[in-house]
Amino acid sequence: MVFENLSDKLQNTLGKLKGKGKVSEKDVDEAMREVKLALLEADVNFKVVKNFVKTVKERSIGSEVMESLTPGQQVIKIVNEELTNLMGTSEVKLNFAKQGPTVILMCGLQGAGKTTTVGKLAKKLKKEGKRPLIVACDVYRPAAIKQLEVVSQQVEVPFFQMGDKISPVDISKAALEHAKKNGNNVVIIDTAGRLHIDEGLMEELKEIKASTNPDDTLLVLDAMTGQDAVNVAQHFDQDLSITGVILTKLDGDARGGAALSIRAVTDKPIKFITMGEKMDQLEVFHPDRMASRILGMGDVLSLIERAQSSVDEKKARELEEKLRSQSFTFDDFLDQLEQMKKMGPISELMGMIPGVNKQALKGFDESGSEKAMKQMEAIIRSMTVKERANPDIIDNSRRKRIAQGSGTQLVEVNRLIKQFKDLRKMMKQFGNFGKGKKRRKMKL
Ligand code: GDP
């Protein structure tokens, strides 16, 4: 989960204030001391922490808060607002060119996740109806060109390369011409990464930038590197004047320092975050939603968006129809399992639900629920086509065969079939209810 440690600590500290009918200045001081420690431990920039705590304290000690009916809640609200402010208030969208193809220049150190992120971004833009082109400008590592090509194929986006003998500036110019001729309206340029910032790299990036005049210059940063990421951001921004950051690997055990300091230190927005290696694990960064997630207040909007982007609407409508007409089969059940898997790990989804805080999730066995899903899948896949379409024919001997075929126990097969039948029964009741209502309406 995102920033688990920080989140736990803040929730614990603020939880103590929550129920209080009266909050004294001393209570606020105490809480802010703990908040300060938690933020420093999460590797948030020292100056940022100092300012943050000062602002929250000043706002909390005002009479409006102290004399309100729920002072504890008010302090939490202020912390939430100030955390959001730290990260930049609201989402900052990509800049699109008014004329000609939009150019996005991607830069970053080696290993930050740049190549993967280029693919994710291209996929997202394509889904939004754009026609992106991915351009390979890392001429120092032939393997990098190949890796990017594989990523492009994976996301089914056209790929442009000229090998490693031509200068990145010439490649990017040629790529723009190619895009204009072929109707690509977004050009994503991948550049070379180095292990450390070096002058040669910066000079080359500056030249590419000057010759392509990008609408966005995005720096890809690894969230796991904490304050180092912030230093890298400062450096790149000074030399290259970036327009935004993409923060990667937020699914790992990043402490939060980078996400919480970058905006405050560089004044450049985080535009996207990535939360995994799969090509659809890139999200628009919403500071307000991130603050809510950190404070365990949930993030329902992101949850809904994720569901919308993973669920195929046509399939959902068909499913609804099938449920109503009770022609729902085990094949449809399997389809549902597939769709759920696409939404991401269950613990991550649960973390977005308000009220489900980190403490509650501690005992949640992720591998258990994933295992159960795999088991259901194995059982259904061991059924014949006829059995899946008409579960009523699955008698005892068939059940035994299915258990054997799927490497499960008979009780597990029985349980799944019972669940399926219960679901059908429930839908039948809903169906009847609907009909009854219609009939009543007609009588009127
Ligand atoms: P580059 O050197 O900057 O181009 O980095 P790559 O795109 O090759 O990524 C380096 C490693 O980080 C690869 O193993 C990626 O799969 C992994 N990676 C990239 N983004 C994420 C992410 O959001 N989460 C996780 N867990 N791994 C990531």
UniProtKB/TrEMBL annotation:
Q: What is its EC number?
A: 3.6.5.4
The residues that the entry says bind GTP are 108-115, 190-194, 248-251
Supply the SMART domains for this chain.
Answer: AAA, SRP54, SRP54_N
SRP54-type proteins GTP-binding domain ranges (all copies): 101-296
One GO cellular component term: signal recognition particle
Q: Which SUPFAM superfamilies does this chain map to? A: P-loop containing nucleoside triphosphate hydrolases, Signal peptide-binding domain
The UniProt keywords, alphabetically, are: Cytoplasm, GTP-binding, Hydrolase, Nucleotide-binding, Ribonucleoprotein, RNA-binding, Signal recognition particle
> Which reaction equations make up its catalytic activity?
GTP + H2O = GDP + phosphate + H(+)
Subcellular localization, as worded in the UniProt entry: Cytoplasm
Q: Which InterPro entries match?
A: AAA+_ATPase, P-loop_NTPase, Signal_recog_part_SRP54_M_sf, Signal_recog_particl_SRP54_hlx, Signal_recog_particle_SRP54_M, SRP, SRP54, SRP54_GTPase_dom
The main location is: cytoplasm
- Report which residue ranges the record marks as coiled coil: none
Q: MF terms per GO, please?
A: 7S RNA binding; GTP binding; GTPase activity
Q: Which residues form the Signal recognition particle SRP54 helical bundle domain?
A: 2-87
Q: What does the subunit section of this Swiss-Prot or TrEMBL entry state?
A: Part of the signal recognition particle protein translocation system, which is composed of SRP and FtsY.
State its role.
Answer: Involved in targeting and insertion of nascent membrane proteins into the cytoplasmic membrane. Binds to the hydrophobic signal sequence of the ribosome-nascent chain (RNC) as it emerges from the ribosomes. The SRP-RNC complex is then targeted to the cytoplasmic membrane where it interacts with the SRP receptor FtsY.
NCBIfam families assigned: ffh (TIGR00959)
Instruction: Please report the name of this protein according to its UniProt entry.
Output: Signal recognition particle protein
- Gene this chain is encoded by: ffh_1
